[in-house]
Specification:
The protein has 280 residues and is mostly beta strands. It is built from 3 helices and 20 strands. The strands form 5 sheets. The chain has a 7-stranded antiparallel β-sheet, with no helix packed on it. Strands 10, 12, 13, 18, 19 and 20 form a 6-stranded mixed β-sheet that branches. Strands 11-15-16 form a 3-stranded antiparallel β-sheet, with no helix packed on it.
């Protein structure tokens, strides 16, 4: 099973009725006449490894910032990626023919709309909604042109993604094994994350932090027993923004064995590979 998480969003800035002559002539450019139409295309985020249930639904609120002013834009068409100014919000207008610099982020803070919110993820990410609510993204200083051609706006994740694949020896007779992520900072409560479970796969977003030499993954293997994984190498435990960390964990009679892999997850492979975080 290959786990990938990409968010590639394109922003198209178009004029609804501006003629080519008007676009070329800045001196006669009509101010506050032509709204900037934002369109985020092929957007997927918070995507779990089975590619189901965690795509944009529509109705999500972005903050779009131009010249230091931020305004709410709503994803009104998830399939087409259409972003429109929110209710009672005056949209941004072209004020000339020069390129503009755009910042955008999701989610937004209703109490401070001009600043990106602090990354605080859900402690309970066992539901799709809470997993998605824990994915913080941003587009920084993107140049947008008045031309009709697409001006790409690429969103990057402000969080790291942790994926744990758990395999338990059936001869042990363990029912309902599970995973918890321990000793984490920047949670809405406590310091333990319950990840989203999909068969033997567990996924969660975490704020960037270094878990090297700390108890990190708690493998729950029965009512009265758990085993804890402690990353000993910097590249296994230092969780960086925009990176995905995948751990294969086997539970056997002798305890747990952790195999950190680069890309494809293939149970039964004997090779152990040092982790190379992939971009999410």
């Amino acid at each position: 099973m290959r786990t990938q998480l990409f968010l590639w969003c394109a922003l198209v800035a178009t004029l609804t009725s501006c003629t080519p002559e008007e676009r070329r002539d800045s001196s006669n450019f009509p101010i506050d006449t032509y709204p900037i139409v934002f369109s985020a295309a092929t957007c997927e985020f918070g995507q779990s490894t089975d590619n189901t249930g965690t795509k944009w639904a529509g109705g999500e609120t972005f903050m779009v910032q131009v010249d230091g002013v931020a305004k709410k834009y709503i994803l009104t068409n998830a399939a087409k990626g259409t972003l429109e100014a929110g209710e009672s919000v005056t949209p941004f207008y072209w004020k000339g023919t020069n390129d503009i610099t755009v910042n955008a982020w999701y989610p937004c803070d209703a109490n401070n709309e001009n600043e990106k919110p602090q990354v605080v993820v859900k402690a309970d990410q066992s539901t799709v909604d809470n997993l998605m609510a824990s994915d913080f993204i941003e587009a920084v200083d993107s140049k947008v042109s008045i031309s009709l051609s697409e001006s790409p706006l690429t969103f990057q994740h402000r969080v790291a993604k942790v994926v744990v694949n758990l395999k338990v020896d059936e001869t042990l007779g363990i029912s309902n094994p599970g995973i918890k992520l321990l000793n984490l900072e920047s949670l809405d409560q406590g310091n333990v994350i319950t990840p989203l479970k999909n068969d033997d796969n567990y996924s969660a977003f975490v704020a960037p932090q270094n878990m090297t030499n700390k108890e990190f993954v708690d493998v729950i293997a029965g009512m009265d027993h758990s085993s804890k994984y402690i990353p000993e190498k910097e590249n296994e435990g230092n969780l960086l923004a925009g990176k995905q960390y995948t751990y294969n964990i086997r539970v056997g009679a002798a305890g747990i064995d952790v195999i950190v892999i680069v890309d494809d997850i293939k149970w039964g492979a004997d090779d152990e590979v040092e982790i190379t975080p992939t971009t999410i």
